[in-house]
Amino acid sequence: MITTSGLTKVYQSRGREVTALDGVDLHVREGEVYGVIGQSGAGKSSLIRCINLLERPTSGTVTVAGQDLTALAGRGRRAGKELREARSRIGMVFQHFNLLASRTVQDNVELPLEILGVSGRDRSRKALELLGLVGLADKAKAYPGQLSGGQKQRVGIARALAGDPKVLLSDEATSALDPETTRSILQLLRDLNQQLGLTVLLITHEMDVVKTICDSAALMQKGRVVESGTVGELLATPGSELAHELFPVGGTASGPECTVVDVTFHGDAAGRPVISQLSRTYNIDISILGAAMDTVGGKQIGRMRIELPGRFEENVVPIGFLREQGLQAEVVTDDGPAIPVQTPAPLTKEVAK
Ligand SMILES: Nc1ncnc2c1ncn2[C@@H]1O[C@H](COP(=O)(O)OP(=O)(O)O)[C@@H](O)[C@H]1O
Ligand SMILES: [Mg+2]
Q: Is the CB of 48 under 6 A from ligand 1?
Protein backbone atom coordinates (compact mmCIF):
# COMPACT_ATOMS: atom_id res chain seq x y z
CA MET A 1 0.00 0.00 0.00
CA ILE A 2 2.93 2.30 0.79
CA THR A 3 6.33 1.66 -0.73
CA THR A 4 9.37 3.84 -0.53
CA SER A 5 12.52 2.94 -2.36
CA GLY A 6 15.87 4.57 -1.88
CA LEU A 7 14.11 7.48 -0.18
CA THR A 8 16.66 10.13 0.70
CA LYS A 9 16.20 13.58 2.18
CA VAL A 10 19.03 16.03 2.62
CA TYR A 11 18.22 19.37 4.26
CA GLN A 12 20.33 22.44 3.66
CA SER A 13 20.67 24.08 7.02
CA ARG A 14 22.84 27.18 7.50
CA GLY A 15 25.15 26.13 4.71
CA ARG A 16 25.42 22.60 6.10
CA GLU A 17 23.86 19.45 4.76
CA VAL A 18 21.82 17.27 7.09
CA THR A 19 20.95 13.81 5.80
CA ALA A 20 17.63 13.03 7.50
CA LEU A 21 16.77 10.03 5.31
CA ASP A 22 19.45 7.86 3.84
CA GLY A 23 18.03 5.38 1.34
CA VAL A 24 14.89 4.19 3.12
CA ASP A 25 13.14 1.14 1.64
CA LEU A 26 9.84 0.61 3.40
CA HIS A 27 6.95 -1.61 2.45
CA VAL A 28 3.62 -1.27 4.23
CA ARG A 29 1.03 -3.84 3.23
CA GLU A 30 -2.61 -3.02 2.66
CA GLY A 31 -4.69 -3.17 5.85
CA GLU A 32 -1.85 -3.37 8.32
CA VAL A 33 -0.84 -1.15 11.19
CA TYR A 34 2.84 -0.42 10.72
CA GLY A 35 4.94 1.24 13.40
CA VAL A 36 8.15 3.12 12.80
CA ILE A 37 10.14 3.56 15.96
CA GLY A 38 13.35 5.42 16.64
CA GLN A 39 14.97 8.02 18.80
CA SER A 40 14.58 11.74 18.35
CA GLY A 41 16.40 12.87 15.23
CA ALA A 42 16.30 9.43 13.59
CA GLY A 43 14.34 10.84 10.64
CA LYS A 44 10.84 9.58 11.48
CA SER A 45 9.01 12.85 10.84
CA SER A 46 11.00 13.43 7.67
CA LEU A 47 9.90 10.01 6.50
CA ILE A 48 6.23 10.79 7.03
CA ARG A 49 6.49 14.22 5.44
CA CYS A 50 8.23 12.72 2.42
CA ILE A 51 5.60 9.99 2.11
CA ASN A 52 2.79 12.51 1.67
CA LEU A 53 5.11 14.80 -0.28
CA LEU A 54 4.71 17.70 2.16
CA GLU A 55 8.48 17.55 1.89
CA ARG A 56 10.13 16.89 -1.46
CA PRO A 57 12.47 13.91 -1.24
CA THR A 58 15.99 14.59 -2.48
CA SER A 59 15.91 11.25 -4.30
CA GLY A 60 14.04 7.97 -4.32
CA THR A 61 10.38 7.20 -4.90
CA VAL A 62 7.16 7.04 -2.88
CA THR A 63 4.23 4.95 -4.08
CA VAL A 64 0.90 5.08 -2.24
CA ALA A 65 -2.03 2.91 -3.36
CA GLY A 66 -0.26 2.17 -6.63
CA GLN A 67 0.38 5.82 -7.47
CA ASP A 68 3.91 7.15 -7.77
CA LEU A 69 3.63 10.43 -5.86
CA THR A 70 7.22 11.42 -6.53
CA ALA A 71 6.53 11.31 -10.28
CA LEU A 72 3.52 13.61 -9.82
CA ALA A 73 5.52 16.02 -7.75
CA GLY A 74 8.27 16.05 -10.36
CA ARG A 75 5.98 17.16 -13.18
CA GLY A 76 5.80 20.76 -12.10
CA ARG A 77 2.82 23.03 -11.47
CA ARG A 78 0.30 21.28 -13.69
CA ALA A 79 0.63 18.16 -11.58
CA GLY A 80 -0.23 20.21 -8.50
CA LYS A 81 -3.92 19.36 -8.67
CA GLU A 82 -3.30 15.63 -9.10
CA LEU A 83 -0.87 15.67 -6.21
CA ARG A 84 -3.34 17.55 -4.02
CA GLU A 85 -6.00 14.97 -4.81
CA ALA A 86 -3.66 12.08 -4.09
CA ARG A 87 -2.69 13.74 -0.82
CA SER A 88 -6.31 14.23 0.19
CA ARG A 89 -6.59 10.43 0.16
CA ILE A 90 -3.79 10.20 2.71
CA GLY A 91 -5.05 11.12 6.19
CA MET A 92 -2.61 12.76 8.54
CA VAL A 93 -2.74 12.90 12.35
CA PHE A 94 -0.39 15.16 14.30
CA GLN A 95 1.04 15.17 17.80
CA HIS A 96 -0.29 18.62 18.61
CA PHE A 97 -3.67 18.09 16.92
CA ASN A 98 -3.39 21.28 14.78
CA LEU A 99 -7.04 22.25 15.28
CA LEU A 100 -8.32 25.75 14.58
CA ALA A 101 -9.33 27.26 17.92
CA SER A 102 -11.86 29.65 16.35
CA ARG A 103 -13.83 26.89 14.65
CA THR A 104 -16.21 24.39 16.21
CA VAL A 105 -15.33 20.72 16.27
CA GLN A 106 -17.64 20.10 13.33
CA ASP A 107 -16.16 22.97 11.33
CA ASN A 108 -12.67 21.64 11.97
CA VAL A 109 -13.69 18.28 10.53
CA GLU A 110 -15.37 20.00 7.59
CA LEU A 111 -12.29 22.00 6.70
CA PRO A 112 -10.64 19.47 4.37
CA LEU A 113 -14.03 18.88 2.72
CA GLU A 114 -14.37 22.61 2.07
CA ILE A 115 -10.99 22.55 0.40
CA LEU A 116 -12.11 19.60 -1.72
CA GLY A 117 -15.17 21.63 -2.77
CA VAL A 118 -17.79 19.38 -1.14
CA SER A 119 -21.18 21.15 -0.81
CA GLY A 120 -22.42 22.43 2.55
CA ARG A 121 -25.00 19.76 3.26
CA ASP A 122 -22.75 16.83 2.26
CA ARG A 123 -20.01 18.35 4.32
CA SER A 124 -21.98 18.51 7.52
CA ARG A 125 -23.47 15.04 6.98
CA LYS A 126 -19.97 13.62 6.52
CA ALA A 127 -18.53 15.53 9.47
CA LEU A 128 -21.28 14.31 11.82
CA GLU A 129 -20.84 10.75 10.60
CA LEU A 130 -17.09 10.92 11.29
CA LEU A 131 -17.61 12.47 14.72
CA GLY A 132 -19.91 9.54 15.51
CA LEU A 133 -17.22 7.14 14.36
CA VAL A 134 -14.64 8.60 16.75
CA GLY A 135 -17.13 8.77 19.65
CA LEU A 136 -17.70 12.54 19.67
CA ALA A 137 -21.21 12.84 18.25
CA ASP A 138 -22.22 15.11 21.14
CA LYS A 139 -19.30 17.53 20.72
CA ALA A 140 -20.01 18.85 17.23
CA LYS A 141 -20.77 22.39 18.42
CA ALA A 142 -18.02 22.56 21.03
CA TYR A 143 -14.76 24.47 20.47
CA PRO A 144 -11.35 22.77 20.71
CA GLY A 145 -10.60 24.76 23.88
CA GLN A 146 -13.45 22.95 25.63
CA LEU A 147 -12.07 19.49 24.92
CA SER A 148 -9.57 17.22 26.66
CA GLY A 149 -6.38 16.19 24.88
CA GLY A 150 -7.81 12.81 23.97
CA GLN A 151 -10.98 14.41 22.58
CA LYS A 152 -8.90 16.85 20.54
CA GLN A 153 -6.99 13.96 19.04
CA ARG A 154 -10.27 12.26 18.18
CA VAL A 155 -11.26 15.40 16.27
CA GLY A 156 -7.85 15.28 14.57
CA ILE A 157 -8.53 11.70 13.54
CA ALA A 158 -12.05 12.50 12.29
CA ARG A 159 -10.61 15.34 10.21
CA ALA A 160 -7.93 13.01 8.82
CA LEU A 161 -10.69 10.65 7.67
CA ALA A 162 -12.70 13.33 5.87
CA GLY A 163 -11.32 12.55 2.40
CA ASP A 164 -12.07 8.80 2.79
CA PRO A 165 -8.38 7.98 2.85
CA LYS A 166 -7.04 4.50 2.28
CA VAL A 167 -4.00 5.38 4.33
CA LEU A 168 -3.60 7.13 7.65
CA LEU A 169 -0.24 8.59 8.65
CA SER A 170 0.27 9.43 12.28
CA ASP A 171 3.26 11.30 13.66
CA GLU A 172 3.51 10.76 17.42
CA ALA A 173 -0.27 11.07 17.76
CA THR A 174 -0.24 9.92 21.36
CA SER A 175 2.96 11.54 22.62
CA ALA A 176 1.14 14.47 24.22
CA LEU A 177 -1.40 12.23 25.98
CA ASP A 178 -1.46 10.43 29.33
CA PRO A 179 -1.17 6.62 29.33
CA GLU A 180 -4.89 5.91 29.67
CA THR A 181 -5.87 8.32 26.91
CA THR A 182 -3.05 6.89 24.80
CA ARG A 183 -4.59 3.45 25.14
CA SER A 184 -8.02 4.66 24.08
CA ILE A 185 -6.63 6.50 21.04
CA LEU A 186 -4.62 3.43 20.02
CA GLN A 187 -7.74 1.33 20.38
CA LEU A 188 -9.59 3.79 18.15
CA LEU A 189 -6.86 3.56 15.50
CA ARG A 190 -7.02 -0.22 15.69
CA ASP A 191 -10.84 -0.18 15.34
CA LEU A 192 -10.67 2.14 12.34
CA ASN A 193 -8.01 -0.07 10.81
CA GLN A 194 -10.32 -3.06 11.14
CA GLN A 195 -13.68 -1.44 10.38
CA LEU A 196 -12.57 0.64 7.43
CA GLY A 197 -9.71 -1.54 6.21
CA LEU A 198 -7.51 1.51 6.73
CA THR A 199 -3.76 1.07 6.37
CA VAL A 200 -2.05 2.90 9.23
CA LEU A 201 1.57 4.02 9.30
CA LEU A 202 2.40 5.39 12.70
CA ILE A 203 5.52 6.99 13.99
CA THR A 204 6.39 6.69 17.62
CA HIS A 205 9.26 6.67 20.05
CA GLU A 206 7.33 4.44 22.46
CA MET A 207 7.77 0.70 22.22
CA ASP A 208 4.46 0.19 24.04
CA VAL A 209 2.59 1.69 21.10
CA VAL A 210 4.16 -0.83 18.74
CA LYS A 211 3.38 -3.62 21.14
CA THR A 212 -0.26 -2.63 21.53
CA ILE A 213 -1.40 -2.23 17.95
CA CYS A 214 1.23 -2.88 15.30
CA ASP A 215 1.27 -5.82 12.89
CA SER A 216 4.68 -4.80 11.58
CA ALA A 217 7.42 -2.47 12.66
CA ALA A 218 10.64 -0.84 11.55
CA LEU A 219 13.46 0.57 13.61
CA MET A 220 15.09 3.75 12.33
CA GLN A 221 18.54 4.98 13.24
CA LYS A 222 20.32 7.94 11.67
CA GLY A 223 18.05 8.10 8.66
CA ARG A 224 18.13 4.41 7.92
CA VAL A 225 15.79 1.52 8.52
CA VAL A 226 17.98 -0.94 10.40
CA GLU A 227 15.34 -3.59 11.10
CA SER A 228 11.87 -4.26 9.73
CA GLY A 229 9.27 -6.98 9.41
CA THR A 230 6.08 -8.32 10.90
CA VAL A 231 6.16 -8.47 14.69
CA GLY A 232 6.24 -12.28 14.42
CA GLU A 233 9.20 -12.18 12.05
CA LEU A 234 11.05 -9.75 14.27
CA LEU A 235 10.51 -11.88 17.34
CA ALA A 236 11.86 -14.85 15.40
CA THR A 237 14.97 -12.98 14.27
CA PRO A 238 17.96 -13.86 16.43
CA GLY A 239 19.59 -10.76 17.85
CA SER A 240 16.76 -8.42 16.77
CA GLU A 241 16.97 -5.21 18.74
CA LEU A 242 13.28 -4.50 18.24
CA ALA A 243 12.32 -7.97 19.46
CA HIS A 244 14.45 -7.48 22.53
CA GLU A 245 12.87 -4.10 23.23
CA LEU A 246 9.37 -5.36 22.51
CA PHE A 247 9.77 -8.24 24.80
CA PRO A 248 12.56 -8.01 27.34
CA VAL A 249 13.16 -10.87 29.70
CA GLY A 250 15.68 -10.69 32.51
CA GLY A 251 17.64 -12.98 34.84
CA THR A 252 21.35 -13.66 35.28
CA ALA A 253 23.30 -16.91 35.25
CA SER A 254 24.03 -18.58 38.59
CA GLY A 255 27.68 -19.19 37.66
CA PRO A 256 30.18 -19.75 34.86
CA GLU A 257 29.51 -23.47 34.43
CA CYS A 258 26.10 -23.07 32.86
CA THR A 259 24.41 -21.91 29.68
CA VAL A 260 21.70 -19.28 29.60
CA VAL A 261 19.17 -19.47 26.76
CA ASP A 262 16.32 -17.13 25.84
CA VAL A 263 13.42 -19.09 24.45
CA THR A 264 10.57 -17.46 22.55
CA PHE A 265 7.26 -19.28 22.12
CA HIS A 266 4.76 -18.29 19.51
CA GLY A 267 2.20 -20.05 17.42
CA ASP A 268 1.57 -23.75 18.14
CA ALA A 269 4.65 -24.19 20.27
CA ALA A 270 3.21 -21.94 22.98
CA GLY A 271 0.74 -24.65 23.96
CA ARG A 272 3.15 -27.61 24.21
CA PRO A 273 5.10 -28.71 27.33
CA VAL A 274 8.43 -28.26 25.58
CA ILE A 275 10.55 -27.45 28.61
CA SER A 276 9.50 -30.56 30.54
CA GLN A 277 10.09 -32.66 27.41
CA LEU A 278 13.55 -31.16 27.14
CA SER A 279 14.28 -31.97 30.76
CA ARG A 280 13.08 -35.57 30.42
CA THR A 281 14.65 -36.28 27.05
CA TYR A 282 18.15 -35.20 28.08
CA ASN A 283 17.80 -35.82 31.80
CA ILE A 284 18.91 -32.32 32.74
CA ASP A 285 17.77 -29.92 35.42
CA ILE A 286 16.52 -26.67 33.98
CA SER A 287 16.23 -23.48 36.02
CA ILE A 288 13.89 -20.75 34.92
CA LEU A 289 15.56 -17.36 35.44
CA GLY A 290 12.77 -15.20 34.06
CA ALA A 291 9.57 -15.54 32.07
CA ALA A 292 6.76 -13.44 30.63
CA MET A 293 3.65 -13.88 28.54
CA ASP A 294 2.32 -10.96 26.56
CA THR A 295 0.16 -10.03 23.63
CA VAL A 296 2.22 -8.51 20.85
CA GLY A 297 0.54 -7.53 17.60
CA GLY A 298 -2.62 -9.26 18.78
CA LYS A 299 -0.87 -12.61 19.31
CA GLN A 300 0.05 -14.42 22.49
CA ILE A 301 3.79 -14.71 22.86
CA GLY A 302 5.85 -16.14 25.64
CA ARG A 303 9.48 -15.60 26.50
CA MET A 304 11.51 -17.51 29.00
CA ARG A 305 15.13 -17.29 30.10
CA ILE A 306 16.37 -20.70 31.17
CA GLU A 307 19.65 -22.01 32.53
CA LEU A 308 21.08 -25.37 31.52
CA PRO A 309 23.89 -27.01 33.50
CA GLY A 310 27.24 -27.10 31.67
CA ARG A 311 28.93 -24.93 29.09
CA PHE A 312 27.54 -24.09 25.67
CA GLU A 313 29.46 -26.93 23.97
CA GLU A 314 27.72 -29.45 26.20
CA ASN A 315 24.29 -28.04 25.41
CA VAL A 316 24.33 -27.84 21.63
CA VAL A 317 22.03 -30.84 21.30
CA PRO A 318 19.37 -29.77 23.85
CA ILE A 319 19.31 -26.31 22.30
CA GLY A 320 18.91 -27.92 18.88
CA PHE A 321 15.98 -29.86 20.33
CA LEU A 322 14.25 -26.59 21.27
CA ARG A 323 14.71 -25.25 17.77
CA GLU A 324 13.33 -28.44 16.26
CA GLN A 325 10.19 -27.89 18.35
CA GLY A 326 9.67 -24.63 16.46
CA LEU A 327 10.95 -22.39 19.22
CA GLN A 328 13.44 -19.61 18.91
CA ALA A 329 16.41 -20.20 21.19
CA GLU A 330 19.24 -17.75 21.66
CA VAL A 331 22.22 -18.24 23.90
CA VAL A 332 22.85 -15.24 26.13
CA THR A 333 26.53 -14.40 26.42
CA ASP A 334 28.16 -12.55 29.30
CA ASP A 335 28.51 -9.29 27.44
CA GLY A 336 24.82 -9.06 26.70
CA PRO A 337 23.94 -9.57 23.05
CA ALA A 338 22.53 -12.98 22.37
CA ILE A 339 24.05 -15.18 19.70
CA PRO A 340 21.87 -17.23 17.40
CA VAL A 341 22.07 -20.97 17.76
CA GLN A 342 22.02 -23.09 14.65
CA THR A 343 20.15 -26.36 14.84
CA PRO A 344 22.74 -29.10 14.24
CA ALA A 345 22.31 -30.55 10.76
CA PRO A 346 20.46 -33.87 10.83
CA LEU A 347 22.75 -36.87 10.71
CA THR A 348 21.43 -38.12 7.38
CA LYS A 349 22.67 -34.95 5.71
CA GLU A 350 26.14 -35.47 7.15
CA VAL A 351 26.20 -38.97 5.71
CA ALA A 352 24.93 -37.81 2.33
CA LYS A 353 27.85 -35.38 1.97
N1 LIG B 1 13.43 21.47 7.99
C2 LIG B 1 14.61 21.00 8.41
N3 LIG B 1 15.76 21.66 8.13
C4 LIG B 1 16.96 21.18 8.51
N5 LIG B 1 17.13 20.05 9.21
C6 LIG B 1 16.03 19.33 9.52
C7 LIG B 1 14.72 19.77 9.15
N8 LIG B 1 13.81 18.86 9.61
C9 LIG B 1 14.53 17.90 10.24
N10 LIG B 1 15.86 18.19 10.17
C11 LIG B 1 16.95 17.35 10.73
O12 LIG B 1 16.82 16.04 10.18
C13 LIG B 1 17.06 15.05 11.16
C14 LIG B 1 15.84 14.15 11.32
O15 LIG B 1 14.78 14.91 11.87
P16 LIG B 1 13.29 14.35 12.06
O17 LIG B 1 12.84 13.73 10.78
O18 LIG B 1 12.45 15.42 12.62
O19 LIG B 1 13.53 13.18 13.13
P20 LIG B 1 12.54 12.52 14.20
O21 LIG B 1 11.14 12.81 13.78
O22 LIG B 1 12.90 11.06 14.16
O23 LIG B 1 12.89 13.12 15.51
C24 LIG B 1 17.45 15.78 12.42
O25 LIG B 1 18.85 15.85 12.47
C26 LIG B 1 16.83 17.14 12.23
O27 LIG B 1 17.56 18.13 12.92
MG1 LIG C 1 9.52 13.70 14.81
A: no
